[in-house]
Automatic annotation (TrEMBL):
InterPro entries: BRCT_dom (IPR001357), BRCT_dom_sf (IPR036420), DisA/LigA_HHH (IPR041663), DNA_ligase (IPR001679), DNA_ligase_AS (IPR018239), DNAligase_adenylation (IPR013839), DNAligase_N (IPR013840), Hlx-hairpin-Hlx_DNA-bd_motif (IPR003583). Its EC number is 6.5.1.2. This is DNA ligase. GO terms for cellular component: cytosol. The active site is at K140 (n6-amp-lysine intermediate). It is an enzyme of class 6 (ligase). It catalyses: NAD(+) + (deoxyribonucleotide)n-3'-hydroxyl + 5'-phospho-(deoxyribonucleotide)m = (deoxyribonucleotide)n+m + AMP + beta-nicotinamide D-nucleotide. It comes from the Bacteria. The keyword Zinc applies.
Length: 817
């Protein structure tokens, strides 16, 4: 960590000395150090969204600070961390002064603290132990708080907490969040709703993958990702970050919402806000702790991070009497979960190869329990991360590198893949050596190349790399791509091992499909050949294939390549229905499911190809722009010379930057670059135009275009794409403007079970007709399509007066379009 951390540690370790044994001079010095450390941590956490110390360390130091201040009230500093909430707004944002301050919460860490909280309140209110005192208990969402001002039902302003007094104006950004209603009915004329913006685990992982692919910074945890995504100067960035919002509090109100906390929350829900379903009323500490246990149990499966449980006095009249301390309300407390940290040995670093050919290092750990879950793996991101640097080249973990044999601190946030938070250098073995990141692919032996400006190293093996090929195939059949029922990751691995499929087109020629369909798509011997050159690789390859065969019920001797190859060949001659684990019925179903997907919208095809930087959104943008497969191919081919030119200029410019110091060489490079642009052969106007057209598409820039053109230009890949296209009937997706459907421009929500089409299909259909499909019902919802088993969403829609129809009604509605 940074210097701040080390000072923090020293200050923290001063805990050995009880406050009352310190001299005032010692206390003063420690308070100064604590103020410095905590203020720096606050800035890093709240302003930069990149914490430099763990939350547990932060909380510990803050408690230490409070303990010293209690012992030496005279020494309390003017800039005491105890009096501060968050951090002042960052430059660049407009500032918003909160009419009612946005505060922090005091913390409880032990069960006993809860009874004490109850007692404290009773004393303050002069209540006896017999008087009823009801609390709400709800999850403490680990995101960042947001204030939303509604005037006459219109969202007019959104602001972050900032330092509690002045926050950042993020109105444009908040408008991009689906959970936040733009307009509400039946609310007080002036109403400030407060709550938490957060990111789900799934969205967080997907975002980090996208960031890694794009060579951009990744986020340490969902909270930082949410904060970093909301606090964007360009709201367009926020639009592409899937943020969510729970409402749980309020500020300014022209009329009260209700008489109790719980009823007020219900009112917020009735306006169309998401409120947390785990909110309960508790009759005293015993029930509060029971709810704490329950929420703690649910924690791992919620799909988003929570870091504790918040208890609030339910009666709002009592809340008003209790009021506030400097930075916290007296009527609420946050009961924090124990830190999800643990120390263990790092036994090995394995490299996994993914669809985009990235080599991802994974730490294999001596299993250890972290926050109730046994952890044996942790992600290591890339070679810089292992070396102690982040994606911008700045030091992380104080520049400590990670080595095999290290004693490491594992950090886990909810469900999210664990990370290495720290390395104990004192336990590092004397003979330890820095980890050497492989420069060849461990799966296929090809060179692993790290390109200028890329944080990851990628296998250059392309389709000969079994890891890349299977990952590409898995992506191809995934939900948002071809979504073939009965063909998941496991089946793909098996079919690949059988050499039945090595590229997407093979899926349409599986043996047993037709009378004559016993085609063997790839010769196992050929696949082995590459690996066989390398004796070490060969063993791995054979073991892998033999393992697959054993799963299929065919025992083989993995010492003997000829035997493995022969066994695969033999098995592959049989139709799928005769292979163990498939059977007539499931093979038939699979074939039917495959057949059904031959007719497919263009955006899915583009997405399914698994091209770097081309996710669902980009694929849809492309499909809308080009309309047909043929138009897309023509455009990409036409743009190819311009793309090559663009890359050449980029390379020359990079070199120029690298040589910035050396005048003479720079001039030569500049000359070379000018030649690239001006020298013969000149670019055809058509190429220039095609390239310009491509990078002008909303949401597509040069980076996406480079990768897209390259994917279609590379002969092997293009061959594979063409073979696939032969099998498909690729459909246009309707442009929303052109759609005359009654659902065009409407916001729809699907709930319950659909019988006649799957949810993803219904969604695609609706979107093709120009509708927007949302996951939750709010005041913005125009139409709810509710199948059997519809629950809270249907009730909410009824409350809000949202029109609701069933699946048949939906099919009728879209029948003519
Ligand atoms: N690692 C670091 O360097 C660092 C630095 C500063 C702060 N922190 C972390 O942040 C915490 C302090 O930050 P804080 O001032 O935001 O306090 P807090 O997170 O402990 O509690 C207050 C916040 O809880 C949130 N909250 C979530 N669910 C809520 C609910 N249901 N009801 C009410 N509020 C809810 C609100 O945003 C509120 O502002 C520390 O405990 C620490 O873990 C860490
Ligand atoms: Zn490879």
């Amino acid at each position: 960590m940074t210097g701040g951390k080390d000072e923090g540690k020293r200050a923290g370790e001063g805990q050995d000395l009880a406050p009352e044994t310190l001299s005032p001079e010692q206390a003063q010095a420690e308070l100064a150090t604590l103020a410095k450390t905590l203020n720096a941590a606050n800035l890093a956490y709240h302003r930069e969204d990149t914490p430099e110390i763990s939350d547990a360390d932060y909380d510990r130091l803050k408690r230490r600070n409070a303990a010293l201040e209690a012992q030496f009230p005279d020494l309390k500093r003017a800039d005491s961390p105890s009096d501060q909430v968050g951090a002042a707004p960052a430059d660049g944002f407009g500032k918003v002064r909160h009419d009612i301050r946005m505060l922090s919460l005091s913390n409880a860490f032990e069960d006993g603290d809860i009874a004490e909280f109850d007692q404290r309140i009773r004393r303050y209110l002069n209540l006896s132990d017999k008087d009823p005192l009801v609390f709400t208990a709800e999850p403490k969402i680990d995101g960042l708080s947001l204030s939303l001002l509604y005037e006459d039902g219109e969202l007019t302003r959104a602001a972050t907490r900032g330092d509690g007094e002045v926050g950042e104006n993020v109105t444009a950004n908040a408008r991009m969040i689906e959970d936040i209603p733009q307009r509400i009915a039946g609310a007080p004329a002036r109403m400030e709703v407060r709550g938490e913006v957060y990111m789900s685990h799934a969205d967080f992982e997907a975002l980090n993958t996208r960031q890694t692919d794009a060579g951009a910074r990744t986020f340490a945890n969902p909270r930082n990702a949410a904060a970093g995504s909301l606090r964007q100067l360009d709201a367009e960035v926020t639009r592409h970050r899937p943020l969510r919002f729970f409402a749980y509090a309020w500020g300014v109100l022209s009329d009260p919402l209700a008489e109790t906390q719980m009823k007020a929350i219900e009112r917020l829900a009735s306006f169309g806000f998401e409120t947390n379903p785990l909110t309960r009323l508790c009759d005293g500490p015993k029930e509060m702790l029971a709810q704490y246990r329950l929420i703690e149990e649910r924690r791992a499966t919620l799909g988003y991070d929570i870091d504790g449980v918040v208890y609030k006095v339910d009666d709002l009249a009592l809340q008003a009497r209790l009021g506030f301390r400097a930075t916290t309300p007296r009527w609420a407390i946050a009961h924090k979960f124990p830190a999800e940290l643990a120390w263990t040995w790092l036994e090995a670093i394995d490299i996994q190869v993914g669809r985009t050919a990235a080599l991802s290092p994974v730490a294999r750990l001596t299993p250890v329990t972290v926050g109730g879950v046994v952890v044996s793996n942790a992600t290591l991101h890339n070679e810089d991360y292992i070396a102690g640097r982040d994606s911008r080249g700045a030091e992380i973990r104080g520049g400590k590198d990670i080595r095999v044999g290290d004693w490491v601190q594992v950090y886990r946030a909810g469900d999210v893949i664990p990370k290495i938070a720290d390395v104990d250098m004192s336990k590092r073995p004397d003979n330890s050596v820095p980890y050497e990141f492989p420069v060849t692919c461990p799966e296929c032996g090809s060179d692993a190349i790290r390109e200028e400006g890329d944080s990851v190293r990628r296998c250059a093996g392309g389709l000969i790399c079994p890891a890349q090929a299977t990952e590409k195939l898995k992506h191809f059949v995934s939900r948002a791509a071809f979504d073939i029922e009965g063909l998941g990751a496991r089946q793909v691995e098996f079919l690949y091992a059988m050499c039945w499929i090595s590229e997407p087109a093979d899926i349409f020629t599986l043996p047993g499909r037709d009378q004559d369909g016993d085609r063997l798509t790839a010769d196992p011997a050929k696949r082995l050949a590459h690996g066989l050159e390398d004796p070490e690789r060969r063993v791995d390859l054979l073991t892998g294939l033999a393992e697959m065969l054993r799963t299929a019920g065919v025992p083989v001797d993995d010492e003997d390549p000829a035997h493995v190859v022969a066994a695969i060949r033999h098995l592959a001659q049989r139709p799928l229905a005769q292979i163990k684990g498939w059977g007539e019925k499931s093979a038939d179903n699979l074939f039917a499911a495959i057949e059904e997907r031959r007719r497919i919208p263009l955006n899915r095809v583009i997405f399914a190809l698994g091209i770097r930087h081309v996710g669902e959104v980009v694929a849809t943008d492309l499909a809308r722009h080009f309309n047909t497969w043929e138009a897309l191919l023509t455009a990409l081919d036409a743009a190819r010379p311009a793309q090559e030119r663009y890359l050449a200029v980029e390379a020359a410019e990079a070199e120029e930057r690298a040589l910035a110091a050396d005048e003479g060489r720079r001039a030569r490079v500049k000359e070379a670059r000018d030649k690239v642009w001006e020298g013969a052969p000149t670019l055809e106007d058509s190429a220039r135009a095609a390239w310009a057209d491509l990078i002008d598409i909303d949401g597509i820039g040069a980076k996406v275009a480079v990768s897209l053109v390259a994917a279609f230009a590379q002969p092997a890949e293009r061959g594979s794409i063409n073979r696939l296209a032969e099998w498909l009937d690729i459909r246009k997706i309707a442009t929303p403007e052109a759609s005359s459907s009654p659902v065009a421009g409407k916001t729809l929500v699907f709930t319950g079970t659909l019988v006649k089409m799957t949810r993803p299909e219904a969604k695609a259909r609706a979107e093709a007709l120009g509708a927007k499909v949302s996951g939750s019902v709010s005041a913005k919802t125009d139409l709810l399509i509710a199948g059997p088993g519809a629950g809270s969403k249907a009730r909410k829609a009824a409350d809000l007066g949202v029109e609701t129809i069933d699946e048949d009604g939906w099919l009728n509605l879209i029948a003519d379009t």
